[in-house]
Design a protein that fits this description.
The protein has 446 residues and is an alpha/beta fold. The chain is built from 11 helices and 21 strands. About 5% of the residues have low confidence.
């Protein structure tokens, strides 16, 4: 049995009787009255176990976008159901609260609270909606639905928790998609669809046209010229159907917080933007998320299915507090790639981790593939480097400067082994990686 504030108020009224007739017998009699009334009210409540509950929830939603969990409650018992229903979800699935408990949402979304009051006559059904606003990637599992059935006086009632399975997959936000249109425009220029032709080694033959002043004489097709009255040159377009393998490092270094999010979040955004761009360029894109074992993999998909496959695979990827197994990563790359390809390593330039792992195997990757290492930079380090107000800030600035020098040194060692290394702030990593991809494609290095 459960009691409500009305039972407490009824018990408090007994203080008036005690003041009028101060006696232990009056106190006992009033206590017995409250218990009897509460028990009677609870006995007249509908049974919460005679309530049929069905949950409807979408299979997936993007991070920070709202979703709805709809409960359909059917009163299977003979009595009227007056109840409070709690739809339990993890805190990361619900809208944040402002200080003081107010829901940080539009005024008309009072339904966002997971508790709902319902009044269901026997044999009828009602639907209640809980609006979810996920703040973390991954699979969110719904908890039990708790039904607190109250009696006619709403003084007391009965309660039961009913298991109603429900799961919502929260996909990455893909906020970097705002950079996609501008990169696609540049890709169209490289691909010859916007009146810009690219010539040089590493590109594919596109067509023949007449020579105009300013064309490179090395592009003249002498055989075609001999068959015509005019000088003819070859035009080229960037190579297509190349392999791009994105390797996402999910080891402990990816768990380091940069601003208000783990470093892996910026890497996920960069992987999604690169996948969208490379797919539109006609390249085959694959994904491996790895630390000491494969956490996620995308292979064998093409066209419009690539980006949804990436989003679904990356939804549940979280950092593991383990050291990265770089020889294992190299073995995975060799298993997946039998010809030259672009390998993108989304990891961090932590000097100790790079020196003890990646540096030893870097040459095994660069000997056969074009390798790009993309790392997230911490803007707080730059802020510490500028501090000079007191002795503590000077020491912090010295430590930050040393950190930057060590990262620059290890980046230079990676470049000497043939890697392209880029480091950018979280919001800039995805577009910088896309620009690097386009530059490599324009240079015919894919």
């Amino acid at each position: 049995m459960v009691i409500t504030w009305r039972a407490v108020a009824l018990a408090a009224l007994g203080a008036v009787a005690v003041l009028l007739v101060p006696s232990a017998l009056v106190v006992a009699a009033w206590a017995v009255l409250v218990v009897v009334v509460a028990a009677l009210d609870a006995s007249l409540a509908a049974s919460p176990r005679q309530v049929g509950v069905r949950r409807e929830v979408p299979p997936s939603v993007r991070l920070t976008e709202p979703a709805s969990s709809v409960l359909t409650l059917t009163n299977l018992g003979p009595r009227r159901l007056r109840a409070v229903v709690r739809d339990a979800w993890p805190p990361s699935a619900l809208p944040p609260l402002r200080p003081g408990g107010a829901v940080d949402a539009p005024a008309d979304l009072g339904r966002r609270t997971p508790r709902h009051s319902v009044d269901v006559p026997s044999g009828e059904r009602r639907r209640v909606t809980t609006v979810l606003l996920p703040t973390r990637r991954g699979d969110l599992a719904a908890g039990a639905v708790t039904v607190r059935s109250l009696g006619p006086l709403r003084i007391a009632g009965r309660q039961a928790s009913l298991p109603v399975p429900g799961r919502l997959r929260v996909l990455p936000e893909f906020a970097s998609r705002r950079h996609l249109p501008s990169r696609l425009a540049r890709l169209r220029e490289l691909d010859g669809r916007a009146a810009v032709q690219v010539r040089g080694a590493g590109t594919e033959f596109d067509s023949l046209r007449e020579y105009v002043i300013g064309d490179d004489v090395r592009s003249i097709d002498w055989r075609a010229t001999a068959r015509r009255a005019d000088v003819v040159v070859r035009t080229w377009r960037p190579e297509r159907d190349r392999r791009v393998l994105v390797v996402l490092d999910t080891s402990r270094t990816s768990a380091a917080r940069v601003l208000d999010a783990p470093a892996i979040e910026a890497s996920v955004e960069a992987a999604l933007l690169l996948a969208a761009l490379a797919t539109r360029a006609g390249d085959r894109v694959e994904l491996i998320a790895f630390d000491r074992r494969v956490r996620a993999r995308v292979a064998g998909t093409s066209g419009a299915r690539v980006l949804p496959a990436f989003a679904d695979a990356l939804a549940g990827v979280q950092p593991a507090l383990l050291e990265a197994d770089w020889p294992g990563i190299v073995a995975q790359v060799r298993d997946r790639l039998t010809q030259r390809a672009l390998v993108v390593l989304l990891t961090t330039l932590e000097p100790a981790a790079v020196e003890q792992g990646l540096l030893d195997v870097a040459a095994q990757l660069t000997d056969r593939h074009t390798v790009v290492l993309a790392s997230v930079a911490d803007p707080e380090v730059d802020q510490l480097r500028r501090g000079r107000d007191d002795a503590e800030q000077v020491f912090d600035a010295a430590a930050a400067e040393r950190t930057q020098l060590e990262r620059a040194a290890v980046a230079q060692r990676l470049r000497q082994r043939g890697m392209e290394v880029l480091e950018a702030l979280p919001d800039e990593l995805a577009p910088r990686l896309a620009d690097t991809y386009l530059a490599l494609k324009a240079a015919g290095r894919l």
